[in-house]
Amino acid sequence: MALLQISEPGQAPAPHQRRDAVGIDLGTTNSLVAAVRSGSAVVLANHDGDVSTPSVVYFAEDGTAIVGREAEAQSVVDPMNTIRSAKRLMGKGSADLAGTWLAGHYTFDTGDEAMPAFVTQAGNKSAIDVSAAILSRLKTVATESVGGDLVGAVITVPAYFDDAQRQATKDAATLAGLPVLRLINEPTAAAVAYGLDRDETGTVVVYDLGGGTFDISVLKMQSGLFEVLATAGDTALGGDDFDEAVVELLSSLAGVLDLEDRGAQRRALKCARDLKEALSDQESVEVDWDIDGSRSWQGTISRAQFNTAIEGLVKKTLSPCRRVMRDADLDNSDISAVVMVGGATRVPLVRDSVSEFFNQTVLTDINPDQVVAVGAAIQADVLAGNKPDSDLLLLDVIPLSLGLETMGGLAEKIVPRNTTIPIARAQEFTTYKDGQTALALHVVQGERELVDDCRSLARFELSGFPSRVAGAVRIQVLFQVDADGLLTVSAMEKESGVLATIDVKPSYGLSDGDIESMLKDSMDYAAEDMHKRLLQEQRVDAERVLEAIAAALAADGEDHLDDGERAAIDGHIELVSQALSGEDGDAIKSAVEALERGSASFVERRMNASVKQLMAGQHVDAVVAKLEESEEP
Amino acid sequence: MSVDFSDNHFQLFDLPVSFVVNQAKLTQRFQALQRELHPDRFASATAAEKRWSMQAASLVNEAYQNLTKPLSRACYLLELNGICIDEETDTQMDSMFLMQQMELREALGDAPEASDPFKALDSIRADLNQGIDSSAARFDAAADSGDWTTARDVVREWQFFDKLKREVKSIEARLDD
User: Fold this and answer.
1) How many Å apart are CA A150 and CA A153, to the nearest integer?
2) CB contact under 8 A, A627 and B64
3) Domain spans of chain A, in order of start
4) Is residue B1 domain-resident?
5) Is residue B40 in some structural domain?
6) I want to staple A591 with a disulfide (CB 3.0 to 4.6 A). Which of A256, A266, A343, A579 is the partner?
7) What would be the CATH architecture of the domain defined by A239-314?
8) How many Å from the N-terminal Cα to the C-terminal Cα in chain A?
9) Which CATH class is domain A4-198+374-384?
């Protein structure tokens, strides 16, 4: 595709001001990292000189994790220690493994119900560990390429990922020491790259069929604003499944019934993948399949045979297509373009079926493998603050309804699917027994009526509210979905205003405590380094806060603060400065937190004032300038 | 919410408190607000500013959705006028209306068995849309004259139509899969 020209020459910030940030497409089969360079988003080449790194990790006996092409080479030789497609297991529990592609190819430790692990010679590895190894490798590629530290990354996830899958992705980044600027949805990232490149206005469908996931999103785009109207998909459907179908076809033709050897399985898959790719531009292909060293099969496979083998899978993608159109209340005539994303959309049957469904020629002239990373890089550049004048804004939605378990195992929807995020919904609860001081909540995600058919996200135990007669305690529970699509729950007793204590037990993945201890245990960080790293992070954070507050005080401190309030804030600033001169990270952190608490009402007052002005429709430009000033001093 | 957003949803978008809404203006104000308030604008801000931005952007999203859908807008107007529409309370409904509801419900039950179920559902949807349009017009008139009791009764009928329309959608989804 054409390089994306996203800034006028001369508009790029001076080099010393630049804050490097990258976009990462963490894919099922391949991962890419991209960055904006002199106004254009480019995909960065790895050590092998490839822009695309296979999402394959080989765990060596000494515990080393080898990522990418070198790992892939181990796939046939040492299949059990070479993990591929770990993305399929992100945010999944042991019970989800049964009958999946992965279950047939690896040995798992399912002792931890919330997080199954691949059994390797280097010990048990969860999908989060595998993803962290991939991210860590991409981070190295990026830092070497930009020649310095990154402020962070925008990481893409399938739009149809649920809360647990998103959280797992974020946790993997944390383990890799990579700050996450934002998780964005893959089709949305693709739309950004496509839309900005063509300066497109209209309603666009993005059909994204990757290695292991399928997403379909409908977006309205207009002068930098990308508003997702609806999204649907299948997080366990992709090109990998085509390969499996081809292996079945080959096996039946060759009369092979016993593909049990893991090495032979990998060889068959490789053969199937090559065949699939060749059939994208040839009508028939000669196959020479080395089954297991002693047996082999030769023959010709036509595209028609291939189409028959994958027909059912392609058809499976069309029902989410119907659903997004229905959810967005749109007809085919409303759609100005259908953009094809993901390697599997190279398959002619996919293109033809989607063209037929939307009754228009689909767009296949953008690089389907790179467009997601490119879009993420553009967004990362904006979020890092390198483009204060950018009018790029993504308004995305929550893909699956969030609900609570009610009496009789029913799920009550709190936030319906396709609600624009961020969003907050409050729900009130009361006690049903005299003297009750605790309340349990079960949060689920999904569209089905019964809790058992939905995805369990977490169980919350609220406690610490006053003891009263039944019904007298009113607890307001707030469900907040942030811009990453992640849910947090907080609760308050309404009469007393007392915040209830929340004990969260995630149904899948890691708790905050787990991540902390994993970080501490991580071999990459000896205790000393860890301490230094944390101290450094606290320092950078403290300096940022100081700068922001100073700029705000200079701008309109006098308008919003009386002398006493000003003195209190100055006192907090002084304490942070003092802490900064020391070596105690915890002291810096608590001083910063005190400053943030102490200045919270000032921050609110000036922002509310800005918004009031904005709403009154006066001097919009002046307010915009002011807000930006306070954002990036 | 600690943010001092005491304004009602109409004021938030600088619109008159009225059932009739200038949708183009609403959308334009929504976009202008999100361009300033969205957390993406605060990615490198302090924790306090980030939190504020998330709350403000959440409120704007909520308010926009609330005013965009005519039924939720009507419910919100009732709420602003101190009228409670509790779906549980048993109010006397017009018997003609109840009859019509029963017929529609029956037709809905038969639709999946029809020779062309999608066509049958389309015809039911057309009836429902007619009911919804008439509800909206009657609500507008009642709200205009400040007759909130009538307005509430109209909303209750409207809710029936809306519920059936959602059922049409979910039957279509089932037939698709």
Assistant:
1) 8
2) no
3) 4-198+374-384, 239-314, 402-510, 527-631
4) no
5) yes
6) A579
7) Alpha-Beta Complex (3.90)
8) 36
9) alpha beta
CATH of domain A402-510: 2.60.34.10
Q: Which of B14, B31, B46 sits opposite A615 (nearest CB)?
A: B14
With an 8 Å Cβ cutoff, is A499 touching chain B? no
Interface subset of B 15-34, CB within 8 angstroms of A: 29, 31-34
Instruction: Look at A75 and A50; give whichever has higher pLDDT.
Output: A50
A318 Cβ contact partners less than 8 Å away, ≥ 6 residues apart: A353, A357
Dump the DSSP string for A40-102: EEEEPP-TTS-SSEESEEEE-TTS-EEESHHHHHHHHHSGGGEEE-GGGGTT--GGG-TTSTG
CATH topology (fold) of A527-631: Substrate Binding Domain Of Dnak; Chain:A; Domain 2 (1.20.1270)
Cite the DSSP H helix spans in B7-93: 9-12, 23-37, 47-68, 70-80
**Range A520-540 average pLDDT:** 65
Same domain, B100 and B169: yes
Active site residue A87: yes
Residue A609 touches partner B, C-beta closer than 8 Å = no
Q: Rounded mean pLDDT of A541-547?
A: 83
pLDDT over 70 for what percent of chain A? 89
> Cβ contacts of residue A615 below 8 Å, gap of 6+?
B7, B11, B12, B13, B14, B29, B33
Same-domain check for residues B102 and B169:
yes
Final residue in a domain of this structure, among B68, B83, B118 = B68
Q: Which of A382, A394, A423 is facing B61, going by the closest CB pair?
A: A423
When comparing pLDDT for A458 and A617, which is higher?
A: A458
Residue A626: active-site member: no
Q: B55 and chain A: CB distance < 8 Å anywhere?
A: yes
A422 interaction partners in chain B (CB closer than 8 Å): 39, 54, 57-58, 61
Residue A141: is its pLDDT beyond 80?
A: yes
Tell me the nearest-neighbour CA distance from B57 into chain A, angstroms. Answer: 6
Active site residue A208: yes
What confidence tens digit (pLDDT) does each residue in A576-616 have?
A: 999 988 888 888 888 988 898 888 888 878 777 766 665 55
pLDDT band at A24 (very low <50, low <70, confident <90, very high): very high
CATH number, position B123: 1.20.1280.20
Give the three-state DSSP class for A140: helix
Give the minimum alpha-carbon distance from B24 to chain A in angstroms, rounded to a whole number.
14
* pLDDT the model gives residue A119: 95
Question: Any CB–CB contact under 8 A between A619 and chain B?
Answer: no
| Rounded distance between C-alpha atoms, residue B150 and residue B77, angstroms | 13
For residue B58, the chain A residue with the least C-alpha distance is A423
How would residue A2 be classed by pLDDT, with cut points 50, 70 and 90?
Answer: very low
B69 touches chain A (CB under 8 A): no
Where does the pLDDT of residue A459 fall: very low under 50, low under 70, confident under 90, or very high at 90 and above?
confident
Within chain B, which residues score under 70 in pLDDT?
Answer: 1-6, 86-92, 177
Query: Coil, strand, or helix at residue B145?
Result: coil
Domain end position, chosen among B33, B52, B68 = B68
For residue B115, give its domain range.
95-176
Q: What is the pLDDT of residue A216?
A: 97
Cα separation, A475 vs A395, whole angstroms = 31
Q: Is residue B87 part of a domain?
A: no
Residue B172 forms contact with A (CB below 8 Å):
yes
| B16: CATH | 1.10.287.110
User: Which 465-484 residues of chain A touch chain B by CB within 8 A?
Assistant: 480, 482-483
Does B39 reach chain A within 8 Å, measured CB to CB?
Answer: yes
Nearest CA in chain B to A616: B14
Q: Which residue has the tokens 């497409």?
A: A25
Nearest to A604 among B3, B33, B39 (CB): B3
Does A186 participate in catalysis according to the annotation? yes
Tally the domains of chain B. 2
Options A129, A186, A197, A381, the catalytic residue: A186
Shared-domain flag, residues B13 and B53 = yes
B117 interfaces chain A, CB cutoff of 8 Å: no
Report in angstroms the alpha-carbon separations of A551 from A546, A598, A603, A608, A621.
9, 16, 12, 17, 19
pLDDT value of position A29: 92
**What six digits make up the tokens of A301?**
């496979």
If asked whether residues B55 and B115 sit together in one domain, one would say: no
Residue A504: pLDDT above 70?
no
Would B102 be classed as within a structural domain? yes
